[in-house]
Design goal:
38% helix, Rossmann fold, globular, 345 residues, 6-stranded parallel β-sheet, 14 helices, alpha/beta
Length: 345
């Protein structure tokens, strides 16, 4: 069986990363981006980004290019509004291709960092229209529940990940207690909340922010204004290679699917703090600490508490033994292929 993941852009992070994990080690699984290598998502201003989306919608030539790329493909896994649209168009041209639609979180929640030119009701209507009566797979239980409320059927498959090669040796600055955020720097990720909550901590605590996005400059100014010990690393190919067991990983997002970054942090034996949203509650059994959504005070109390623990205490808290069993990338692949092989879905 030959499979093609159809995604909107070719950045290797966020929800896109799932597709690169699914294709890893499987030479019959290809990842195809509607935006080529020249159109990196965050090289564009928000205005130009929106315009590029509308250009993509009316780019009829792109259909023929995609059809040329997916010769002999049996299954398409589409992820995002434009991949959904092109998936439907391709199926009309090649009826033998099975098309599945991937959803990571409950899109009806009003927390968009993109598609700002569309009113929320229209955004939801488009998504509902595209997904209804289709073969839909979700990566989080919260997405499944959200779709169910909107009368859209779906299959649920948990994300998996590869155990990261994390920094096993002590950091050169071993007197510093490192707090980490790894991900996109966009509004929905609430990195600004993390910066605001980083106060009343011992002087040896440092906040490390890994990633890029349209809020990077604003966040940098905020960290300077708050006079906190903060380092912006930009994008790093293997961020967990500089993260050590007992470091503190923070995921303050308003919305998540099943976060691969959080899974990797758990497997790296970090002490993990995350926002109390549906998708993150699935991680409580690994002793991830949850804080009240959008609450600076709640997050600060968790940061202060974690800073008072010794490295050995923080390492002991995280249930890496359970995560090793649950976060299998190979098992994730098998589950998708099983769904693709099933008939009359």
């Amino acid at each position: 069986m030959k499979i093609t993941s159809l995604i909107a852009n070719n950045i290797h992070c966020g929800s896109n990363y799932v597709h690169y994990l699914l294709s890893k080690g499987n030479n019959k699984w290809n990842v195809l981006s509607l935006r080529g290598k020249k159109d990196q998502l965050y090289d564009l201003s928000i205005k130009n980004l929106e315009l590029s989306r509308y250009r993509m919608l009316f780019n009829i030539l792109l259909v023929s290019k995609i059809l040329n790329e997916i010769r002999n493909t049996d299954v398409i896994l589409a992820d995002g509004i434009f991949p959904y649209i092109y998936g439907k168009i391709i199926r009309k041209h090649v009826p033998t291709i099975k098309v599945f639609f991937l959803v990571h979180n409950d899109y009806s929640i009003n927390n968009r960092s993109n598609w700002k030119l569309l009113p929320k009701w229209l955004f939801n209507f488009i998504y509902d229209f595209l997904l209804r009566n289709e073969k839909v797979i979700t990566t989080s239980l919260s997405a499944s529940e959200g779709l169910k409320k909107r009368s859209i059927k779906s299959f649920h498959i948990d994300n998996g990940c590869i155990t990261p090669i994390y920094g096993k040796n002590k950091n050169e600055d071993n007197h510093i207690l490192n707090f980490w955020y790894v991900g996109r720097l966009v509004k929905a990720k609430q990195v600004g909340l993390l910066i605001k909550a980083f106060y009343n901590l011992p002087s040896h605590c440092r906040l490390n922010i890994v990633g890029n996005g349209d809020e990077k400059e604003k966040l940098n100014h905020l960290s300077i204004e708050r006079n906190i010990n903060c380092k912006f690393w930009g994008e790093i190919e293997d961020p967990f290679s500089i993260i050590h067991p007992g470091d503190i990983f923070v995921l303050p997002s308003l919305v998540e699917g099943k976060s691969i970054a959080l899974m990797e942090a758990i497997l790296s034996n970090c002490y993990c703090i995350a926002s109390d949203i549906d998708a993150n509650r699935e991680f409580e059994k690994y002793n991830v600490t949850l804080f009240s959504v959008c609450s600076v005070e709640s997050l600060n109390s968790k940061l202060v508490f974690s800073s008072q623990l010794s490295q050995k205490q923080r390492i002991k808290i995280t249930r890496v033994d359970l995560a090793d069993q649950d976060f299998s990338q190979k098992e994730m692949q098998k589950k998708y292929i099983k769904v693709f092989n099933e008939k009359n879905k």
